[in-house]
Each structure stands twice: as C-alpha cells, then as structure tokens.
Specification:
The structure holds three protein chains of three kinds. Chain B is built from six helices and 17 strands. Chain B is of the alpha+beta class. Chain B folds into three domains: about 160 residues, Sandwich (Immunoglobulin-like), CATH 2.60.40; about 70 residues, no CATH class; about 40 residues, no CATH class. Chain C contains 13 helices and eleven strands. In chain C, the strands form four sheets. Chain C has a five-stranded parallel β-sheet. Chain C has a two-stranded antiparallel sheet with strand order 3-4. In chain C, strands 6-7 form a two-stranded antiparallel sheet. The chains are: A alpha+beta, B alpha+beta, C alpha/beta. Chains A and B meet through β1, α5, α6, α7 and α18 of A and α2, α3, β7 and β8 of B.
Chain lengths: ~675, ~325, ~325
C-alpha cells in the first residue's frame, strides 16, 4: 500500500488527458481553420504512440518550431492573436503542443488549465443545451485528469478515477447554481467586440421582388416571444423589423438617413418625435428572446417602447439595439397595438415616402392615376387598390416566375403570381404613384403558439413584408395585400397558405416542422423547443436585469448588502450540507444493529458522565452504569443480558434490537 | 544576532504551540483540531484561471462562460472538503520500531487505519530525513508504512514530529498535520572492526573446554558407593560384569568470552563501545557464549538473540540516564 | 432412545452442567479450607485443570505454592507424585530408567515420578535445563520415550510446577520459549489481612490436607473437560480475541506477540472459566479474567523505553483493545 516517491505522470491521468484533448477539439472543429484541427489530431496521435511506447516525444527544436509556426499561422489567419476566435485557436494549439511535451506534474497541470480554458472558450460559440452538456462532459474529463494526477501511482484504475471525478463534479453543482444566481452580474468592464459565428440566416435589409424563382424557407428559429398577458390574435402579430422606403425600380432599400445616429433616440434622452406617436388604449407587454442576427434591428409589434438600456427607438418607430446582436438576446417591450403614428406627416417625410424612380412601369403608373381618380379620399384609394388584388386572378405562391424590366408592370398585369414581397412592393408602388405616402415594412408575421410554455415561436419562414400607408388624420396604417390574396397566410401561417403547392419547407432538408400533421411529433418538437426556450430565457438570458427582477421577487428588494448576505448565507449552507455529507463518518463502524444500539447506549452514558473505558466489556460497563444510577440498574441489567444473548450466546433472541432501543429511550 | 534570537524564539514558541495542540501520543486520530489546510501554488493558479474566465464571461456577457467560472470555483471549494476529509478520521498509531547501528537507518513502522470507514488516498508521510512514503487506504481498513530514518547518534533516539500531508483529490489545497508519535529506538554504537587481545579473554582459549561435576553429560564410570542414586547405576555394565558401577556426569562449559570495557583502555568512550559492539555481533554470529562487562553493568555469559539484544542495549544506553 | 428430541438433549446438557458446577463449587470450597483467601487463584488453577493445561505457580518462597499444589492434587483424588527439582536431578530421575533384573536376566523399565496423574514439579528452576526439558517434553507429548520404548502417560495428566521468581545463583530460569507449555502462570501474592489473621490465630490449616477427601473422580473430571470443549464461543468473541492477538503482534509495546498456541490457550481457558461461572457461552469478561494468567508469561514487553514498565502486559493489552467493534 505504499509507494515510492519518484514522480511520473500516472498513466491514469495521461489517459484522461488524452481523452479530454480529443473531446475538447470537437466543439471547435467547425469554426476553426482545418489546419488547426489537423495539427491537433497529429499531436494527439503522436502522444498516443508515445503513450503506447512506440514513438519518442519530438525533440526540442521541432517543438519550438511547431509552437512558433502555430502562432504565426493563427496570426496569419485571423490577423490578431487576441479575441475569442484567434484566442481559442491559440489555446487549442497550446493545449495540444503542451500535451506533447508533458513530463512533470507541473506540465500536466498546465495542460489541465489549458483544457479548462478550451472548454470556457467553446462557450463563446456554442450555447445550446446539448452543447452545454457536451462541454460539461469535457470539463469532467479534464477534472478526471487532474484527479488522476494526484492519486497515488498505485491507484491505476481509470474507472475509479472517473467515478471520483464525477462525484466531485456533481457535488459542485449546487454551489455553482448558488453562485450563478447570486453573484452580482455587472456589465462589461471594457467594451469588446462580440465574437460572431459564421453566416446567419435571417432578414435581409433589402427586397427585390422577382429576382428569385423560389423563396427558400428555413425552419430555424428567429425569436420567441413570451407575453405577459393574453396572446393577441395571429393576424395582429406583425413583427416589424425594417422599413424599406427607397425604390430604384428593382430593389427596395432603406434610406441612407436611417443609418444616421440622429435617426435613433436612446432611453433617457428627450424624444424629439414623442408628439408624433400616440398610444391609444392598453399596452401589451412581452419579452422577446431572439437568436443572434449580427444586425442591430430588433423585432416588435408596433407601437413599441422599451426601457431597456441599449435599446433605442427610430424615427419610423422601430426598435434597434446599440450593438449588433451576436449572442442570444432578450428584451422586454411594451406595445400599444392601438395607436396613431405621425398624424401630421412632416413634409420631408412625406416626400421620402412618395419617392419613385423617374420612369418605368408606365402601366402601373397609369393604373394608379385611374385609381386616384376613381377614389374620393385616401381610404377609398387603399380599398380600391386592395380590391384590385381581390378581383383580379392573383395567386399566392412560393415559386413565382422571374421578372425583369418593368417588374411591377409584369407582376400586376402578366404573371400575377408571387409572395408577400411582390404584393407589398406592388401596392406601395401603386399608392406612391397615386400620391399617397406609403412604405414597405419587413419583419415576421404570425408565429406558432407553444402551449407548454405559453409563448410564441417565430421561425425564419414566418418572414413577411407588408405595407404602411399614411392616411390623413389617422397617420400610418398597416395594410397587408398578401392577406387579401391569401387570407390563410396571415390567419393560419405559411403552411396553410401553400398547402396546395407542397412547397412548404421543400428545400430545407429534414425538419420536424414538416411533420406538423403528426401530433406526437409536434408535441415532442414543442416540448424540446420549450426546453430550449427555458434555457435561453433562464440561463443564457440571465443578466443583470433578470437577476434584479428575480432577486427582488425573492428577497424583496435588492441592494448590495442584501445580495452579499444572501450570497454568503447560501454558500455557507451549501458547503455546510456538503461538509456533513463528505465528512460523515459512518460513526457506527458496525453493521450489526444491536451493536449500533450499544454504541448509542455508550454515547448516552458518556453524556451522563460515565464514559466507557477502552477495553471495557459491555456487561461490565452496563453494570457500572447501573451502579452509578441505581434507579435504573434493572434496565441496564436487561440491556446487558440482551447484549450478551445477542453477541455471545448460541441462541440469539429475536427482537433484541427493538427491545434494546426501547430500553435505551426509557433510560435517556 | 537578533535574527538568530528571533528565530530561536519563534521556533520555541511554535514548538510549544504545537505541543499544546498536538501532544505526544502513541496513537492519534486526525480531526479538525489537528489538520491545517492551505491552497497550494497550483490552487492559486487555478483561481487565477477561474478569474480570467470570469472576466471573459463578464465582458462578453456570456452566461455559460460565467457558469464555467462558477463551476470551477465550486470545484475548488468542494475539493477543500475532500482534501480535509482525506486526512480527517485517519488514525495513526505507533507500530514496531527497530533499533539500528549509528550510520544506519532505524525502521519505524506506522499503522494507519480509517477510523471513519472512509477511504484515504495518497497520504504522504514524511518524517525527518526519511524518504517520504505514500499510503493508500482504499478498500482496506488498515495499512502499515515503514519509514527508515537515518540515525547518527548513539543512545535513545526519538524522532521529531511526523508530518502527514495530502493534496488529494485535485492538488489545489494541501492539508497537513503534525503528529508527535511516542516512538523511540535504541541506536547501537557503530561497530569498529578490531582484534580482541587474547589475554583479556578469560584464561581459556576458544575450543578448550572446562568441565565440572554436573548432570548434563555422561563422563565415565566409577565404583558404586553406598548412597549413590540407584538411577545412576550402570545397569548394562552390571548385566555384563556383575559389578555395580555408578555413572558420573559432568556439565560442559563451551568456550566463554568475556568482553571487557577495560580491554580497550586508552580509547575514547565511543571507540570502546564501537569495538565492543563489533565483538558482540561477531560472537553472536559465530554462536559463542559471551558475557559483557561495562562499568556498572555486567551481563553474564549466554548466547542467543535475546542476549545479543541485551548486550547491544547495554552498549547503546551506556552513559545515559535511565528514564 | 435414538431419536431424542433436541430439547431434551439441551435439558440433559444443562442438568449435567449443573452437576458439574456443584462439584466444582465443592472443590473450590475444599481447597479454600486449606489455602485461605486465595479464591481467585484456586479457581484459576481449577480452570487450568479443566481446560486440560498445565499450571505454573510463581511466587516467593513461603507464599503457599506447594500447599496449593498439594491440596489441589489431594482434592482431585488422583495418583499424585512430587518431584523436588535440584541441580543434580537427571532426566532419568523424572522419566524413569531401565533396571536390570537379575532373576530374569532382562532389563525392566522402572517408571519415574512423571507417571502419575498429578505431578507436582517443585522449584522447577533449580534443575538443569536438561532435566527441565525432560519434563516439558513429557508435558507436551503426554508420553515418554526411554531406551527406544514409547510409553503413554496416564490421563488426565496434570503438571503443577512451582518456581521462584527471584533468580538465585545456581538456578536455571525456564527458557522463555518453553514457558508457553504451561497453559497458565499464576502468582499467589500475600494473603489478605483477614485470611492471614485466621491463619495466625487458628491452627495451621495445612494439617487439613491429610484430612481432605477427594471430591471428584476420573469420569467426573473427564465429563467436565468434555463440557469445557462444548462451551459456545461466538463470532463476536472470536473477533475480540483476534483483535487482542493482532494488537499484541502489531503494537510496539510488545516485543513478541501471542502465538497461535497462546490464542488456543486463551480460548480454552475462557471456556473453562465460563463453565465455572455456570454459563454455556463465553463472554468477554471470562476472557479478560483469564488473560493475565494465560497471556502474561507468553508476552514479552518491548525492552524499549516508552515508560510502560510496571504495568502488567496483559493489563496493557486488555485496556488497549476494544471489546466490541
């Protein structure tokens, strides 16, 4: 049971380090340049050969060369050595290189530290539940390696090491939760550019109807919305994101002024266009938890208002974030669904929303003039225009024909088949040509209600474009020509609208969304989404705000002192319970219940001032107790007899434990 | 000078403190009173790493990175408990201690047992200049460890405090305890090879034998005299010759050596003892019977392991005040 | 009856034990009439006999060693021989020798005093090691070889040896390696005040020895010895015994632990003690009671210097080892 001191890394620890290395590379593979992965695998393979005693470790020069060229290559690839991307590549390389030249316990410890860093950096890019579980597994592997380093060389069973490491990890969980919940969240200490993952799907900031023959739909999640009250009807759910008010005959774009800082007002600053927005009636409050888009725009029902720091309101009443949203982001919004916007339209704004190319689409312009003449006022103009879509044989399709040249003309008079972008673009063109200010709004429409979590899921395929038209006295009004052509698109969603066509998610590969007709698939999908939703909302979205909200509901008001006290008390409580558990000696060193009773009797006796002497037989001790407490001599004598019968006599008496316990209680 | 005094004072103070807190015992069970615990250098690095991860989490406002930092801090705290538990409940008791000659190593056997029914791993025992030993108590209740302590001075040797330490499971903390185990051995003089001058070898040469009347060995026959024990009559010769003879017996004394303190007059005390020690070992090895005379001590001639031991003890303790 | 119900067997056993117990009490009482105030030692001596072991009585002269031994043998009512050990005692004086028979012209073995059921070896340390080992061998083997013939000793064969602890010139203390041939070693010690006064006031109780009658006969003794073997020893007790053994072997207090023979002796002696206490199972107190007599002479304290001198080793052992787990 004793070992010699000379140190070498236990194979046990080495095994776990190698396993941890390979497992640690995996979450980074898709993001890192391929050569990093290859170098890492090469190092790992080499180390395995060393481990098996086939190869020797590489020489010092080769190692130095590897390290230097690794660093240079990372610099070459990222142009920097800082930041999460380059940093994690460097870390991973360092992890593998260090593993190559690990001889002493100190080296191995450095590898372990690097291993933890590799896990931590992976969290910059991987945030889903499954990723988290996997990275926890890697964390566990690294811990097992660290544990293996400090076991004595004679304990070589990797499984035992793993078991102990798992125990350590599990015991750390409660404390981790306490820290996670109670350690005060503070904002970034210095501003850093958020790491962003590769290309994201999502809304585009321009719209070119007729360019594509097929609208590709993604089943990916755009955002989730949790309403504080009742969920409004689906046809009310127009999630505004962008206002496209410039048209060049082909493409709808944002006016350059929209990118100017003056276009946004931040909370706390005086709102110069406060008077142009009037909320009527109750506001609807909800929280949006959105997936990263790498864009600044946010999604909200109009008329939206948010007090959250870093969220501003634009002149066209949208919400934008101060920085691009590169991490899952959650914000609370209050929307007045009943509202009046820009009842007085400033001249410059009217002009901008009447903008059209100098020429082109003559048939449409003529149609617009006819409509104008036929209509008494603006409202009649809009309804006449919509009636046009209703009366003519327009149809809704995800596979429209390509358009070129006078696209609006072609669409309105020839093809008459298209999706939301076609209809919205055409309607705005008509209205503007008829002299009525109008604009295209893009965003998402509708969403899927998840009854499990009472929230609405909005997918990428819910992307939509519609129209806002300015009516005198009423301000901006939402008009959706798609709803006229295909009412089911707005009321029931895209799937219903294109049910006859079979084009729903036709090109997005496998997705459980394609099997919505099967109830159990839907159930599973919604359940899983709920889990993810909860994950995003409670874990990923747990920030200073939600911490304050959560804590004030528990502690009744939050200040530093209360938080500090709560933190210390909670840590002490958790550690106390764990200490009891870890340090608990099976005080009774026996399994024999009768002996246990006797040990308790001894403990009682000691409390009463008569301690059992070492080497004192039970009979003798109980007799001494009986002499000290003559009133109870009889009971002690009975105890002694029971014990003797059980321990030393050929025929043990049944029920001895119970009788002893009863006697002991009567004595205590 | 002042530094020396301060150092001496500090040492005395800490010795006294330890003695009060951890008195000398034959066996002791480690508990919170006896166990000290501090983070190791690796533990500090670990915390620094955790802090770096924490900063990353804060700056990128990434809950999961923060969560990793919290998990690592928790791991650190939990491992304090485990490191402590790895020593706590460990019972250390003095086992055998074997004497040794000056310049050799005395073997001290310690017995460790898990008083709490828990497992203990990689417990390092270091004691003075002995090579440290690691002990595991996994799936067994007791273990023994033998530490070899070099001894340099003749006489009674009592090692200073024994240190038990452990940084199991994660090496982030080190728990240790000092135990003053009541163990002692005798250190025998270093044997010095020399001749033993014949004249001091009590007037007999090796191999020469002396006999005296006794009852051990048959010596011869003599004529029967009245009063002789009838059991001593040589009945066989009577049967042959019809004459009564009595058997006589003698006790043989094999060669006996007296090892005398005075034999090495002119040498220093240790020199004398070393030479006597050499001869005790040599004679014991050769199976002779020998006696030992030191000032104030006389061990009569005898042989066997026990006698050798008595002689060596007398040599080891020469000049020491008896406890 | 061949198919005796188990119950009646148990009843028989307990009845037999009651009979034995009466006889034992009678024996103790009888011996006590001569050896005053030494009840414990008398009982230990008897336990030793019932356990089938030999007894060594060690004490200063004049403490009544010989009296105790003689009284015991008288009470037992068996053939009794006494050997006074002296320095010129030859093995043949103990075992016996072949004598030439002139009439028959042949050798004839004359058995020595060892051929008796109770042998009192008085002052055993006065004889030479050769003579001592002749007796010790006979004790161990329970048979004697002389001139190529092996003869069994009578049964029961019970040796009571006495020894003077103060080593004097011309004595040969029993070699330590052979001491454990004796199941027990007891010391008598001074009589208590009351007993001594009784002795001083009254007549010399030794005169009772001749008037004593044998209390027990051979079949009765054999029955008792048989009952001793059947006394139940539980697992818990064996555990305790093993802990004692382990401690004696591992602790640095002892130079030399208890041998397996010593373990066997402890078990048998405690069984005998339990029987004398009228129990059919052994409790730890029995073991602790016989421990000093059985173990003290088998243990060798570490000659080392930790200041435990003066405490009896058996006591040290009993105090250090927990009775229950």
């Amino acid at each position: 049971m004793t070992g010699v001191v000379a140190y070498q890394i236990p194979r046990n620890a080495m095994t776990w380090l190698l396993v941890a290395m390979f497992a640690g590379i995996i979450p980074h593979v898709d993001r890192l340049p391929i050569w990093v992965t290859l170098v890492c695998l090469l190092c790992g393979g080499w180390r395995i050969m060393v481990y098996r005693g086939r190869w020797a470790l590489p020489g010092g020069w080769l190692r130095a060369l590897l390290v230097f060229s690794g660093g240079a290559a990372v610099w070459g690839h990222y142009g920097t050595l800082m930041g999460p991307e380059a940093g994690s590549a460097l870390l991973l390389l360092g992890f593998c290189f260090k593993l190559m030249e690990t001889h002493t316990r100190r080296d191995a410890f450095v590898v372990v530290i690097l291993g933890y860093f590799v896990v931590a950096t992976a969290f910059f890019f991987r945030l889903e539940i499954v990723d988290t579980l996997y990275l926890l597994l890697v964390c566990f592997l690294v811990t097992a390696a660290l544990l293996g380093l400090h076991q004595s060389p004679l304990q070589t069973a990797p499984r035992r090491t793993a078991w102990l490491a798992a125990r350590l990890m599990l015991q750390s969980v409660p404390l981790t939760l306490v820290l996670f919940l109670l350690v005060p969240r503070i904002g970034p200490i210095w501003a850093l550019e958020q790491p962003s993952a590769s290309a994201r799907t999502g809304l585009s900031d321009e719209m070119t109807p007729g360019d594509i023959a097929r609208l590709s739909q993604s089943p990916a999640l755009a955002f989730r919305v949790e309403f504080e009250g009742a969920v409004p009807a689906t046809d009310q759910l127009y999630w505004r994101a962008l206002v496209l008010d410039q048209f060049d005959g082909r493409t709808w774009r944002r006016h350059p002024q929209q990118l100017h800082p003056d276009w946004v007002v931040w909370p706390g600053n005086p709102n110069p266009w406060r008077s142009s927005q009037q909320a009527l009636g109750q506001a609807t409050a909800y929280r949006v938890i959105m997936e990263p888009t790498d864009k600044r725009w946010l999604f909200a029902l109009d008329l939206a208002r948010s007090d959250q720091r870093g969220i501003g309101q634009t002149r066209d009443f949208r919400l934008v974030n101060r920085v691009p949203v590169s991490q899952p982001f959650s914000y609370r919004v209050e929307s007045a669904l009943n509202h009046r916007l820009d009842p007085e339209l400033p001249y410059w704004l009217a002009r901008r929303n009447l903008q059209l190319p100098e020429d082109g689409n003559p048939r449409s312009r003529e149609l617009a003039l006819q409509l104008r003449q036929r209509s008494g006022d603006a409202e009649e103009l809009v309804s006449n225009a919509l009636a046009l879509f209703r009366q003519q044989p327009f149809s809704y399709t995800l596979k429209p024909p390509l358009l070129s040249g006078d696209r609006v003309d072609q669409f309105l008079f020839d093809s008459r088949r298209g999706f939301c972008a076609h209809y919205a673009g055409a309607l705005v063109f008509l209205l503007r040509a008829a002299g009525q200010p109008a604009r295209v709004v893009t965003g998402y429409q509708g969403g899927e209600f998840n009854p499990l979590g009472n929230y609405v899921l909005v997918h990428q395929f819910d992307a939509h474009a519609w129209v806002e038209v300015w009516l005198p006295g009423k301000g901006w009004q939402r008009v959706d020509p798609t709803a006229v052509v295909a009412p089911s698109r707005v009321a029931e969603g895209l799937e219903q609208a294109v049910a006859g066509e079979g084009s729903f998610l036709a090109d997005s590969g496998f997705s459980p969304l394609q099997y919505r007709q099967w109830a159990w698939v839907s159930q599973l999908r919604l359940g899983w989404d709920y889990l993810n939703f909860a994950w995003h909302r409670s874990v990923l979205g747990y920030d200073a705000d939600s911490q304050r909200r959560w804590l004030s509901s528990w502690l009744g008001g939050v200040d530093w002192r209360r938080l500090g006290v709560a933190l210390v008390v909670a840590i002490a409580a958790v550690l106390g319970v764990l200490a009891l558990w870890v340090l608990w000696r099976n005080g009774a060193t026996t399994r024999d219940p009768v002996l246990k009773e006797y040990q308790r009797l001894c403990a009682d006796g000691e409390r009463r001032g008569v301690a059992r002497q070492p080497g004192e037989a039970p009979g003798r001790y109980l007799q001494r107790l009986g002499e000290t407490f003559p009133g109870q001599a009889r009971q002690y004598q009975q105890c002694a007899r029971l014990l003797d019968d059980h321990l030393y006599r050929a025929e043990p008496t049944p029920g001895a434990v119970k009788r002893l316990r009863r006697l002991r209680r009567s004595l205590a | 000078m002042a530094v020396l005094m301060v150092r001496r004072w500090w040492r005395q103070w800490s010795d006294n403190w330890l003695r009060r807190r951890l008195p000398r015992t034959r066996a002791t069970t480690l508990n919170q009173r006896r166990i000290f615990i501090l983070p190791t250098r690796n533990g500090v690095y670990f915390l620094l790493m955790t802090f770096a991860i924490f900063l990353g989490g804060i700056n990128y406002s990434n809950s999961l990175v923060l969560g990793t930092a919290f998990l690592l801090v928790s791991l650190f705290m939990i491992s304090i408990l485990h490191t402590f538990a790895n020593l706590s409940g460990l019972r250390v008791s003095a086992g055998r201690a074997e004497g040794a000659f000056v310049g050799e190593e005395a073997a001290f056997t310690l017995r460790l047992s898990a008083a709490g029914g828990r497992q203990h791993q990689a417990v390092k025992l270091s004691w003075g200049r002995a090579i440290p030993q690691y002990v595991d108590l996994v799936d067994c209740d007791t273990a023994a460890a033998t530490l070899l302590l070099p001894v340099t001075r003749r006489g009674r040797y009592r090692p200073r405090r024994l240190m038990l330490e452990s940084n199991y499971p994660l090496g982030l903390q080190r728990a240790w305890s000092w135990i003053d185990l009541d163990m002692a051995v005798l250190v025998y003089p270093r044997p010095i090879v020399c001749d033993y001058s014949q004249r001091l070898h009590v007037d007999k040469r090796p191999g020469e034998q002396q006999t005296e009347e006794g009852s051990d060995d048959f010596h011869g026959l003599r004529e029967y005299q009245r009063g002789d024990n009838p059991r001593h009559i040589a009945w066989r010769s009577y049967a042959r010759t019809q004459e009564l003879h009595s058997k006589t017996f003698v006790t043989r004394r094999s060669s006996e050596w007296w090892l005398e303190w005075e034999a090495f007059a002119g040498f220093g005390v240790e020199e004398r003892l070393g030479r006597l020690c050499y001869w005790v070992c040599k004679l014991a090895e050769e199976g002779h019977s020998y006696g030992l005379r030191l000032p104030g001590v006389e061990l009569g001639p005898a042989d066997g392991a026990l006698h050798r031991r008595h002689c060596l003890e007398a040599l080891a303790l020469y000049g020491e005040v008896q406890p | 009856m061949s198919n005796t119900p188990p119950n009646s067997r148990a009843v028989d056993d307990s009845r037999a034990r009651a009979v034995s117990r009466d006889q034992i009490t009678q024996m103790v009482d009888a011996v006590e009439r001569v050896v005053l105030g030494k009840r414990t030692q008398v009982r230990l001596a008897l336990a030793c006999l019932f356990a089938g072991g030999h007894l060594l009585i060690e004490d200063l002269p004049g403490m009544g060693k010989t009296t105790l031994a003689r009284t015991l043998s008288t009470v037992l009512g068996f053939s009794f021989k006494r050997i006074q050990f002296t320095s010129d005692l030859l093995p043949a004086d103990i075992i016996g020798a072949s004598v030439f028979d002139r009439e028959r012209g042949a050798f004839e073995f004359q058995p020595g005093p060892v051929f008796a059921q109770v042998v009192l070896a008085d002052e055993i340390n006065r004889a030479t090691p050769k003579a001592q080992s002749a007796l010790l061998e006979a004790m161990e083997e329970r048979q004697v070889s002389a001139d190529g013939v092996t003869m069994p000793l009578p049964a029961p064969f019970f040796v009571i040896a006495t020894q003077n602890p103060a080593s004097q010139a011309g004595t040969f203390a029993l070699p330590e390696s052979q001491l454990d041939r004796f199941l027990m070693r007891i010391e008598l010690g001074y009589p208590d005040q009351k007993a001594e006064r009784q002795m001083l006031m009254g007549q010399d109780p030794r005169r009772f020895i001749d008037r004593l009658d044998a209390v027990i006969d051979l079949p009765a003794l054999q029955r008792i010895q048989c009952q001793v073997e059947q006394i139940f020893v539980s697992d818990s007790l064996i555990d305790y015994l093993q802990r004692l053994l382990d401690f004696s072997r591992q602790s640095s207090d002892f130079n030399c632990g208890l041998s397996p023979r010593g373990a066997q002796a402890l078990k048998r002696a405690s069984q005998a003690w339990a029987l004398m206490e009228g129990r059919d199972y052994v409790i730890p107190e029995d073991l602790q009671r016989v421990l000093p007599a059985v173990a003290e002479h088998r243990l060798r304290g570490a000659s080392d210097h930790s200041g435990h001198r003066g405490v009896s080793l058996a006591r040290l052992l009993a105090d250090a080892v927990d009775v229950t787990e």
